[in-house]
Design brief:
Keywords: Hydrolase. This is Aminoacyl-tRNA hydrolase. Its EC number is 3.1.1.29. The chain has about 140 residues and is an alpha+beta fold. The protein has a single domain, classed as Double Stranded RNA Binding Domain (2-Layer Sandwich). Helix content is about 40%, strand content about 15%. A hairpin with a 5-residue loop joins strand 1 and strand 2.
């Protein structure tokens, strides 16, 4: 059971893992030991997630989410399989925590009169500067 928040818990059955060979330099075991982890999580069909969290997680996942709504996290930062496994689970939990955070709705406001006046004054000043550049001195 992966405890994400006090409300969201994901059972082990929803987190299939695959072990693959880790990319990069490795030493003696580089072509023999499969230490990297591919952790998959079916976001679209998971009963463990509330609907609003599911939508935000699909958006947050970006290119890690395939067309079927399966989020895949690859972890190969460490040399051991166990540390990579923990790393992948922690990264998934952190992503779900971010998705669980409901963004504060933006309240539309209008610009103040003073800010409008300052903006227009700055535009006029900028126009004057550009106009001064284009004027050529007369040949007297």
């Amino acid at each position: 059971m992966l405890q994400v928040t006090s409300v969201i818990r994901i059972p082990e059955s929803e987190l299939p893992e695959r072990f693959i060979r880790s990319p990069g330099p490795g030493g003696q075991n580089v072509n023999k030991v499969e230490t990297a982890v591919q952790l998959s999580f079916d976001v679209a069909r998971s009963p463990s997630l509330p609907e609003d969290v599911r939508r935000r997680l699909l958006r947050l996942g970006g290119r890690r989410v395939d067309g079927d709504g399966v989020l895949t996290i690859e972890a190969h930062r460490f040399r051991t399989r166990e540390r990579n496994r923990e790393d992948a689970r922690e990264r998934l939990a952190e992503l779900i925590r971010q998705a669980a955070h409901r963004p504060k709705p933006r309240i539309a406001t209008r610009p103040t009169r003073g800010s409008k006046e300052r903006r227009l004054a700055a535009k006029k000043q900028r126009g004057r500067v550009k106009q001064m550049r284009s004027r050529r001195p007369s040949d007297d």
